[in-house]
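Field reference: sequence -> structure
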Amino acid sequence: MKKISNILSLLIAALTIMLGCETTSLDVVESPNALNPSQASVDFFLNQIQLMTAQIHSGEEGRAENGLSQFGMEPVRMQHGFGPTYRENYDPSDFDRVWDNVYARALIDIRTMNPLAEEAGQFTHIAIGQILEAYIMMSMVDFFGDVPYSEAVSGGEGILNPTVDSGASIYQAADQLLVEAIANLGKDETSLPLNDLFYNGNEGQWRKVANTMRLKLYLQTRLANAEGFGASVSTSRINELINSNQLILDASDDFYFQWGTNNASPDSRHPYFDANYDGAGPSSDFYTSNYYMNLMANQYSEPDPRIRYYFYRQQEDYSGADVVTKECVTEISLPSWWDPSEPYCLVPSTNGLSGYWGRNHLDDDGIPPDDAFRTLHGTYPVGGPFDDNTFRNVSGSAAINEGLVGAGISPILMSSYTYFMLAEAALTLNTTGNARDYLESGIRQSIGTVANFGASLATGTGFEATTTAIDNHVAEILTSYDAADDTGKLRIIVEQYFIALWCNGIEAYNTYRRTGQPDNLTPAFTTPDPGPFLRSMWYSQTAADSNTNITQKSAPSTPVFWDTNPDGFVD
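Structure field:
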């Protein structure tokens, strides 16, 4: 009691002093070291959201963390993925960082930025955030199916266990975001973004991005059974988008993130350059698929004009290879399930090029001492060296100044992609335009973009993509297209789309599950039955463990809502 009495006496004395002093203020002074949202820069938020989008796509420089693009390239044989079965291809914890970047970073930053931008009349900032949110959430559905959205970081309510929304409802919300973004781009704003990392505040180019994302959305859902989607809706919407003439149809409007050349404080280089050339690579598990390199080297009478820009060969001669570096070179016969026309173990040099050293699909052998043999990512799009037949050993940290020093790009939506999507739509939905013309435009747009990107390194080597080589290559593809039936035509469209999509596994993974093409991919390396294909990915381990409303999948083979193809459609 005596202690309580003393405390009360002190409180009364303090109150008396405060009441007797007119100059005393009871206002709480905010700590200068603890910024609140009202003190934050809308431009800083926007730049962070844009960077997060690039990292969700391509991974993070200086970290052993993959983005969605890498997870998409591996199942479709663009990049090698370990196995030996699809179930063992990934572990749920592999997706923790992507989920963290989406829910704990990008979406929170968008939710925090929007009211500040609204109050300031910065409608272009809001529109860009809406476009990127739509892209991110569509990609989350594409990879994981039903995921949290409406309750995730909603208005700062702090819902600890947000429920999952159906993939169809998230797609509908994404489409609405894109429509609203287009409207916001038409409003008078107080100021444009100070440092837009994509388009420098050009509203016309952002409008084309939003419309092209809607094209992607309605092509993606052409097989869906959900309300508001399906073939007739897709046909109508795609024709409207074509007629609007507001799509990414020229390379000047390409939607990509430009990486830098700093290797520390911070490391701003393309994450794949970092993995291939600095420190962790190529002693890491970064291998290009033999199928994909063979597709470019040997499918037609001459190699694809982009091949020297895509890949850098450290060796031309395999004679130094032995069982230690690649045990399959000593195997006497092919496995019974292997098509002898497809590359096994090594890419054949039947078309004038040799030295392409990758791995076959789901090969889960350990990492051998093959640093000096391994084919690395080249100039496009990661900023590495151009393959000029010098065959230098450029692996490891001594090669950090090779090529464009990592100043690559994350190709998110390029003009060539638009033409390939329109080609598929014209062939399968009979939308406006000619599929063959779209196919040719897509190939030429892609080759032009790649050649221009690497011109500073390729010019004068004698190995640059020439007009004659490009014209001959395109003509040969179109001859094959003209001779094919509809299934063959779709295969050729998708094969060429896959080549244009190098280092964009998001669209390749989606296109393969949607079309079943290419239908001649090489099989699993170590077993004729690798189990059901990855029709979606595991939920993040952290999300499944911490959110009572997320139940981990029994297997990563559940189709997403727009994938209504039958079991066994892809493998």
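Note: Residues 15 and 21 are 10 Å apart (CA to CA).
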